[in-house]
Design brief:
By secondary structure, the protein is an alpha/beta fold. It has helices at residues 9-21, 23-29, 46-61, 73-82, 98-121, 166-173, 198-208, 239-245, 254-265, 281-287; strands at residues 33-38, 65-70, 89-90, 93-94, 127-131, 138-147, 150-163, 177-181, 183-185, 193-196, 213-218, 223-224, 233-234, 236-238, 270-275, 294-297.
């Protein structure tokens, strides 16, 4: 059978133009660490899983140093339902009982992580799995959440309060892509694990790695100044303006935007939330002048293109 390809000059020129558009961004991010938080619908669609794996492999092969941090909310919810373990959310966080933390740990480290590593490795032996519990990568402490002025207990849920980036840096130095699950040891209760918010974990790791950018995949197009008015999508926002907006945001958006804020305040050049429902959204965000979603920069740095 003859392999027939479209070799029209117009199509070839379009492809070349697209590649050239990425040149300044390839120069900007080459040899730089970019932390990508993977989650939401992108985790449960086969098509989007493959597109994400292609994006991450592409970054690695063009000289960027991607680091992936993932949660597993849909998979955790499914498993808890199957095991008839009650599950609820408060203030945007999953309440995690002692019974539930075992399921969270099993799903994140034993199911989602190796599946994602395998997807990326279908493009070459370049990805390796890590847990926040490995080699002292994360250290966590339990947290609650303030609702209507009162603190509500979340069970075995914590914040990442310590990061030792050494195991991630070792893998990057070896040319690998670290894929990190968002579970952390409880510093105050040795031998116990904490369910940590993957957005916050990615932010803390990005700061510790002095990353050039943090990218958070989510299930919306970005931050809206006047939700649900879809005409109010914010493309760029400074940290000062974001601080003013935080109290008015939907509870599920607060952890994501706070993670972006903490990243840029901690020294990361820029942080963005993008729509993970769009195939190759990571490449669009990093390698086009238009970008996608909402980018957050430090107020003193001004708004970037």
């Amino acid at each position: 059978m003859t392999d027939i390809q479209d070799t029209s000059p117009d199509l070839a020129e379009l492809k070349a133009t697209t590649l050239i558009e990425s040149l300044p961004w390839l120069k900007k991010f080459r040899d730089q660490i970019v932390v990508i938080k993977y989650g939401g619908n992108a985790m449960i669609s086969d098509e989007l899983q493959e597109a994400f794996a292609q994006d991450i492999a592409y970054l690695r092969y063009v000289g960027v140093q991607p680091v992936v941090v993932h949660g597993g909310g849909p998979q955790i919810s499914n498993m808890l339902d199957r095991l008839a373990i009650p599950s609820e959310f408060k203030g945007g966080y999953r309440v995690t009982s002692t019974e539930a933390i075992s399921v969270v740990r099993m799903v994140l480290t034993g199911q989602v992580n190796p599946q994602l590593v395998a997807k990326i490795n279908s493009h070459g032996p370049i990805a390796t799995g890590l847990s926040g519990e490995d080699a002292g990568l994360f250290g966590g402490r339990r947290r609650g959440v303030i609702i209507d002025g009162a603190e509500v207990d979340l069970g075995r849920v914590g914040d990442v309060v310590e990061v030792d980036p050494t195991p991630v840096l070792d893998h990057l130095a070896a040319g690998r892509i670290p894929v990190v699950s968002s579970i952390a040891p409880d510093l105050d209760n040795p031998g116990q694990s904490l369910n940590v918010n993957a957005d916050a974990a990615a932010s803390a790791l990005a700061v510790a790695l002095n990353a050039a950018k943090l990218v958070i995949l989510t299930d919306v197009a970005g931050l809206y100044a006047d939700w649900p008015n879809r005409e109010s999508l914010v493309s760029h926002i400074t940290s000062t303006d974001l601080i003013d907006m935080l109290p008015k945001l939907e509870s599920g958006m607060i952890p994501k935007m706070r993670a972006c804020l903490e990243a840029v305040e901690g020294g990361v050049d820029a942080a963005a939330i993008i729509d993970g429902r769009l195939p190759h959204s990571v490449l669009v965000e990093l390698f086009t002048s238009r970008g996608i979603g909402t980018e957050v920069v430090l107020a003193e740095a001004g708004v970037t293109a």
